[in-house]
Write a structure and sequence with these properties.
Blueprint: E1 5-9, H1 16-29, E2 37-41, H2 47-53, E3 60-63, H3 80-83, E4 89-92, H4 95-100, H5 105-117, E5 121-126, H6 130-134, H7 138-149, E6 160-163, H8 177-195, E7 204-208, H9 216-220, E8 227-230, H10 237-252
The chain binds 2-phosphoglycolic acid (PGA).
The site of 2-phosphoglycolic acid has 13 residues, from strand 8.
Length: about 250
């Protein structure tokens, strides 16, 4: 599995026309790179149309969420079995899902298991609030989210973990390189080594939160970080393609 990875999380943005234009431009301009994974995550109704545009392209598609059940009376929800075959990745446990829709570590864990059962590759999001950071608890919070999110997951080969400090998402504020390194090593890397002592395949680790072309290298220069999860800047073709190019350059060194 190639390590460098750049994921665009479009959230509830883009009309169908804008979505198709954006992926058509990305498809035309990004040189296929077998050593990297580029993923766009449109809203559910656009997944099929976007995947048609991306046929024969190396750009992959992800969903922004899914329900843990296979089917049933869950009005408004989408299951992993419905997404299987339409997209390769699924973002789970995004802080907006946790804070606005009350998703718990336990619920997110069941979704991770269900995603894997359905052949989808989960991108598990973790991260602390500003208050948790200020009280010195960031690594502990992230540790718990990683441990709980991966409970009952035996094979982590196709899991990606995105560290996104909640206070950095959509705010233009970013943590220092040192702080990110510290939290990723203690809150993520050490935990993975503890729970999977025999695994040769440590999941890819991404940074997310106000990533722009100006700051992306602050994060991707860290050898523990394989790439970025980009929100706002992924809606803009110029910004996103610059972030892709800068990440690949940083990771090639
Ligand atoms: P942002 O969002 O880049 O707009 O801060 C990141 C995310 O929510 O994944």
């Amino acid at each position: 599995m190639p390590r460098p990875m750049i994921v665009g999380n479009w959230k509830m943005n883009n009309s169908l026309e804008q979505a198709l234009q954006l992926v058509a431009s990305l498809k035309d301009s990004l040189t296929p790179n077998p050593n990297a994974e580029i993923v766009v995550c449109p809203a559910f109704p656009f997944v099929i149309e976007v995947s048609r545009v991306l046929e024969n392209s190396s750009i992959k598609i992800g969903a922004q969420n899914m329900h843990s059940a296979q089917s049933g009376a869950f009005t408004g929800e989408v299951s992993g079995s419905m997404l299987a075959g339409l997209c390769e990745y699924v973002i789970l446990g995004h802080s907006e899902r946790r804070s606005l829709f009350g998703e718990t570590n336990r619920f997110i864990n069941i979704k991770v298991v269900s995603a894997l059962d359905n052949g989808l590759k989960p991108i598990l999001c973790v991260g602390e609030t500003e208050q948790e950071r200020d009280s010195g608890n960031a690594s502990t919070v992230v540790r718990t989210q990683v441990k709980s999110g991966l409970a009952d997951v035996a094979d982590i080969t196709s899991v990606t973990i995105a560290y996104e400090p909640i206070w950095a998402i959509g705010t233009g504020k970013i943590p220092s390189q040192e702080a990110v390194h510290e939290i990723i090593s203690h809150g993520i890397f050490e935990v993975l080594q503890e729970i999977y002592p025999d695994s040769y395949n440590i999941p890819r680790i991404l940074y997310g939160g106000s990533v722009t072309p100006q700051n992306v290298v602050n994060f991707t220069a860290d050898p523990l970080i394989d790439g970025v999860l980009v929100g706002g800047a992924s809606l803009d073709y110029n910004l996103f393609s610059q972030i892709v190019a800068l990440t690949l350059e940083a990771k090639a060194n």
